[in-house]
Description:
Oligomer: heterodimer
Order of helices and strands of chain B: HEHEHEHEHHHH
Number of strands of chain A: 12
Distance between the termini of chain B: 33 Å
Structural class of chain B: alpha+beta
Largest sheet of chain B: 4 strands, antiparallel
CATH topology of chain A: Rossmann fold
Low-confidence stretches of chain A: 1-35, 259-263
Distance between the termini of chain A: 22 Å
Shape of chain B: elongated
Strand content of chain B: 5-15%
CATH architecture of chain A: 3-Layer(aba) Sandwich
Strand order of the largest sheet of chain B: 2-3-1-4
Number of helices of chain A: 7
Radius of gyration of chain B: 30 Å
CATH superfamily of chain A: P-loop containing nucleotide triphosphate hydrolases
Number of domains of chain B: 2
Number of helices of chain B: 8
Helix content of chain A: 25-40%
Mean pLDDT of chain A: 81
Largest interface: A-B, 27 and 21 residues
Amino acid sequence: MAGLLLSSSDSGRRANGYAILHLNLFRKEPLVAAIGDIVRFESVGMRYRLGVEVLHDISFSLAAGSFHFLTGPSGAGKSSLMRLMYLAHRPSCGSISVFGRDVSTVPRVELAALRRRIGVVFQDFRLLDHLTALDNVALPLRIAGAKEGQIRDHVAELLRWVGLEEQSDAKPTTLSGGEQQRVAIARAVISRPQILLADEPTGNVDGEIAIRLMYLLEELNKIGTTVVVATHNEALLERFSHPRIRIENGALIEHGHETAFDPDAATI
Amino acid sequence: MMRPPRDLPLSNDPASRYIPWTVGLLVFLATLSLAIGFFLSSAGENWRRSLSGTLTIQVPAGPDQQAFTGSVIDLLSTTPGIDAVRRITDDEVATMLEPWLGDEISTLDLPMPVLIDATVRRGHAIDIEALSTRLMAVAPGTVVDEHAVWLRRLTDLAVIAATVSLSVMVLVLLSAVMTVVFTTRTGLAIHSDIVEVLHLIGAKDSYIARQFQIHTLWLAGIGAACGSVLGGSAILLIEVYGARLSNGLLPDITLSGIQWGLLCLLPVAAVLLVVATVGITVKRVLGRMM
Lengths: 268, 290
């Protein structure tokens, strides 16, 4: 068990309501061992069952430690592309490599292990309503077989980090949209994913909370997490200057690159 | 302490509420079917053991009955292949007829035949027709009753009935399996959103299947225990009251210790079968996901 990704520090400063922390890694090695493509799509097409192709001839790659916006109008195929990236769907053609593994040849039992290295913030959060905030955040660790004592400590710390320590026993239905979003983020990062995918994470929150969220994602990116944020929020895109992957009508029309992640800078 | 996973709110499923009732009823029926199979199997074996290798000779009532009886016993005693000859006493005959004629048989003054048991040496074949002819010569009207023919039919019937009972038990368990498959698939459909989230977070199929299995183990365990207790009670009642009511007409209907042990294992086997079915069903359904 790799241990929790983040730990808070008393000296951490708070900004915009979120705890902006010194991000100390429990282990010293960086998240990404070597610079390289962590995700690669080659001529990928996708269709749902026997329907029309919603994505066609998509080719791009993401460098480890990069931060990308996935943009495009509603219905362009952003969520479908995200589904392919978080291994929820098979491509109808082409090939997808994640962590250097061609997902079409990875045995089913190993797919679960690959998914544990990918954190996902779903558009509608997809929290489990019958579980408390603490249990929702603990889910990836329990699935990974972590010990209960460790889980409680780590989850409590992460909830404190996202400013929800007081709501740890609250059910998602009693939380506001912003609070649910933070629980979803905490769940996505608790197991220290190498890739963090956020599908329209600002869709259900106001502008200020959206900006706070972006700061949070940038903090995660600074310690080496590859981040992809699907959004059509133009204000957000203008404010944060990360490269864009733009798709329209299921086709890739723009793929901006940025400097690859430097693992030496991962420990802050 | 490791807490059992409860990521799926299965206890709220309407379909799973019927699992204890269904499994309980099916275990009850399976217990009775298995017990009937044991009864019939034991009865057939008892008949075979008590009657094989014997002949019964009836000397009809009449003025010369005593003389004829002596002649028949003499002839049987000197017949090659017959090891022992024994006249069945009047008291034994009265006991045998008691179920039909009551216990006041001696006062009825009925013309009763004399019955003689002859034990045939193991592996020796007696020519029944020739023996009958010889007996008729010394005691006219004498009847030789060979048990082998009707005993074979009776034991064949018992075997068939026992097989049918065991087949019913298997069908009952298959019904339980089908019910559980349906319930599990319903549960997966109801919780498909949560199952997908768990799947995408990195849960293996076995992790999700285990939650269904633990839930079903508890419900099926309760049902199976109740069904088994009810079934066992019914068998005990049949043993106690059946023996009284049949008044000797039916063979002894008691189960051996081993048979009781097997009946006690039935609910355990049923629960294991159900839990294994749940696991296989969940994994098969999840196998269709990426």
